Every structure is written in C-alpha cells, then in structure tokens.
Amino acid sequence: MQRVFVERKIFQTFLWKLVEITAKMASGDPADEATEVGPLVRLSEAERVEGWVREAVEAGAKLVAGGERNGSVMTPAILTATKPGMKIRDEEVFGPVVLVEPYDDFEQAWPM
Predict the structure, then answer these.
(1) What is the pTM for the complete model shown?
(2) Average pLDDT over residues 68-81
(3) What is d(CA 77, CA 65) in angstroms, rounded to the nearest whole number?
(4) Are 54 and 86 in contact (CB under 8 A)?
(5) How far is CA 32 from CA 28, 70, 77, 91, in A?
(6) Alpha helix stretches (DSSP H) within the chain
(7) Which of 13, 37, 70, 94 is most enclosed, with most CB atoms within 10 A?
C-alpha cells in the first residue's frame, strides 16, 4: 500500500511540504540522469493508473497534486480523503501515487 498516515495537527503542514517536494521531481526519460519518475512499463498501465485516480476523484477523493499523464509517464499523484471501496485505496497501484490521510487516534488509523 502507498498510504501515509499523518497526525491531524500536522497534516496540512506535512501535506503541503510533500506537494512542494514532489513538484520538484523530474518525470520523463529514464535515460536522463535528472529523471526521478520514469514511465510505467506499458501505456496501458499508465492509462489504468490515470483511470484509478480519476475514479477516486469522482467518488470524492481529493487530488492534491499531480496525476497528469503524458504517454506512459505520470506525474506523481497525491490524494487524500480516500474511502474503502476505491481501487486506488484497496488495491496495489503499481504507479506514482500516494494517499495521505489524517488521523486523530493512531489506534483508529489502521485499518483506515
């Protein structure tokens, strides 16, 4: 799973710092030394990940950053407000996606 649980009192600070760092990551040609996020193995996989992100957003998740696809390259997507039943949350994505969720009591955070 690609989920990060963050204590609610620092959630916004953490989230925007993650967005800031992720925005600086170079996506593209894996032969370029500057590239930190390369293409998915096949175009169909990039389309699948893009579809899962879109489905989650349509079901109420918030896409905070990223998630754009150019061919088989996707910019890292950061989502929050995901819910059980969303593929992006319930299944392994195998793509550049992270879910960031706040919690008040760690014992209640898992399984979120």
Answers:
(1) 0.92
(2) 96
(3) 6
(4) no
(5) 8, 17, 21, 31
(6) 8-23, 43-58, 87-90, 106-109
(7) 37
Residue whose token pair is 């998740």: 61
Condensed to tens digits (0 to 9), the pLDDT of residues 83-97 reads 999 999 999 999 999
Structure tokens at 63: 């896409």
Which pLDDT belongs to residue 30? 87
As given in the structure block, the two tokens for residue 51 are: 């579809």
Reduce the DSSP state of residue 9 to 3 states and report it: helix
Question: What is residue 80's three-state secondary structure?
Answer: strand
Which candidate, 6, 28, 33, 26, places its Cα nearest to that of 17? 6
Give the model confidence (pLDDT) of 22-40 as tens digits: 999 998 888 899 999 999 9
